[in-house]
């Protein structure tokens, strides 16, 4: 089995985030031969632990000899990660990410590692605020790989949700919302933790509780802080709610709707009325965002996150192959 | 010393919250003879532990014989506290709080304990949402004790900040904002924790960072979630910020301004332009709120929180003395 993989392995793609790494082994045609991963994200690793963590995830796929390209996006390229791949400033062409890639020194001769850069945005006193991304730019490159010259608005939901404006395959602006983290802190650690539970929206009443909350927060974002405490008060006083777990699910759906509605509030005026927002990520979370957008009268379409990141990494690899260049080597290391 | 207190002690006032209790021993004229307290708040106690915790705080003041009235406001009267003093619904006259008081059974014959009720508000589909308070109503009663028939808007900043509309000494509406808790979670446990520090606003640049943030959040509350992540991005990218602790203080002042500005956003239209908001609480926090209100062109005045709670409890005691009634005894207990 592993020998089969090793024989056909052409390259490896890795999405290495703060809390986990996900790796894919691919053949020459871009077919996924193997999947791996671990919870050894950037936050759990010191610099010298990256290569062992990588080998733990993909070592079994590697042929005994050879030099396999390993393309990595995400927090492994942060300053506090394996080796810094400095942010590219906007505007940033997504078919040119490889120009900001760096190659960390590795001990295992079978590895040819390349870290892709993130993007940064400087404040311009108007629409653009200081902002950064690492990892999402590679998923966006995947969108552009599939739809060259893409223009429009993309959203990548998550702990730190990204909204990205693209023009002709170039990122011209983006904004990050702390939505997922805010939800997690409120649901898990605030006074609301006794009143809410994570809810699938197909539980009775949860879908409506979610969309009502989206509309309330989007139309009156200034009441967000009151709406939050209102969840606790409703738990104490509202006789119209069900009891027990169903009550907590209903209030959890409402909390999720409030945080996503707050996120959408400032964007409502900018959401295209004539074109769909492109949601990139896992289906469950993108479905929830699609429902929230729909509650505000907007349409969306979905691009799977894994598909996007693989297409984005492949695009970076093609760029490098086309230019005949290897990645830059970080300052202070011998190529 | 303690014998002096015991000779002159007329009554005891206790503000018993979620995380601490504060107690005052007073003479017949309402002069404070002694102060005590501990971190044995409601969250740290089971029902049978309240009387020992109370005796630990005030036992030394009690005369060997006698029957000292002990008036308690706050979470000790919650359902999960010592003994439930059920919420009074709105509209609630603040000079009649004693009518909702209950007396828990106590073992020590020197104690005559009375728990004051909180207030609750039912949603009316318009301005009023479900809401509850416990403890703040007694501080508001103190405002009314000092200014009988008070009408106006009062704010009690804190973990859960209360905004309260009073008409002729009666609470007609209130709204709770999760502001303090939100700030604590974001500053202490989110990705922002690396970028911010609690800041006194007299540190260089902090006052302006705070007031700018108040105005930004109040005028564009829908951007709150973006503004939060913007603190992290500014820490990474903004060369105009100082370094080290001064940088974190500046960003901490900004985070404080964003959370308070969000709270004020929905209230801006309701803030009286011709009258001052009455801020009740400790001076440091009330000063910060006064500055925030001032940044939005509104005026305020300050009533010290301890003064307010003592005046409120005294008012309740006077009411009971005037009616000649003792407090109600909770259901199921023998008076």
From TrEMBL, chains A, B:
InterPro entries: DGOK (IPR007729), DGOK_C (IPR042257), DGOK_N (IPR042258). Transmembrane segments: none annotated. This is 2-dehydro-3-deoxygalactonokinase. It comes from Billgrantia desiderata.
């Amino acid at each position: 089995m592993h020998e089969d993989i090793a024989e056909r392995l052409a390259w490896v793609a890795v999405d290495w985030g703060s809390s986990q790494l996900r790796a894919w082994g691919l053949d020459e045609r871009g077919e996924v031969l193997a999947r791996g991963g671990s919870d050894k994200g950037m936050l759990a690793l010191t610099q010298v632990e990256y290569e062992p963590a990588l080998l733990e995830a993909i070592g079994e796929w590697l042929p005994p000899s050879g030099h396999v390209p390993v393309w990595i996006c995400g927090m492994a390229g942060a300053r506090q990660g394996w080796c810094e791949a400095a942010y590219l400033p906007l505007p940033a062409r997504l078919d040119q990410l490889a120009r900001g890639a760096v190659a960390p020194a590795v001990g295992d001769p079978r590895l040819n590692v390349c870290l892709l850069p993130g993007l940064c945005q400087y404040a311009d006193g108007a629409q653009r605020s200081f902002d950064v991304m690492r990892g999402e730019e590679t998923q966006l490159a995947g969108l552009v790989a599939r739809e060259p010259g893409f223009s429009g608005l993309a959203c990548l939901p998550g702990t730190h949700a990204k909204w990205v404006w693209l023009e002709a395959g170039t990122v011209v602006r983006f904004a990050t919302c702390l939505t997922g983290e805010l939800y997690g802190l409120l649901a898990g650690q605030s006074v609301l933790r006794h009143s809410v539970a994570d809810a699938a929206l197909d539980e009775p009443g949860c879908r409506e509780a979610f969309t009502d909350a989206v509309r309330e927060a989007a139309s009156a974002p200034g009441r967000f802080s009151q709406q939050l405490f209102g969840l606790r008060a409703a738990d104490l006083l509202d006789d119209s709610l069900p009891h027990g777990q169903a009550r907590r699910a209903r209030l959890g759906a409402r909390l999720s709707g409030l945080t996503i509605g707050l996120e959408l509030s400032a964007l409502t005026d900018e959401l295209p009325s004539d074109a769909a927002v492109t949601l990139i990520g896992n289906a469950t979370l993108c479905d929830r965002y699609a429902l929230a957008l729909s509650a505000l009268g907007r349409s969306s379409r979905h691009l799977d996150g894994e598909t996007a990141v693989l297409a984005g990494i492949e695009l970076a690899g093609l760029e490098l192959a086309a230019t005949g260049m290897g990645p830059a080597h970080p300052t202070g290391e011998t190529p």
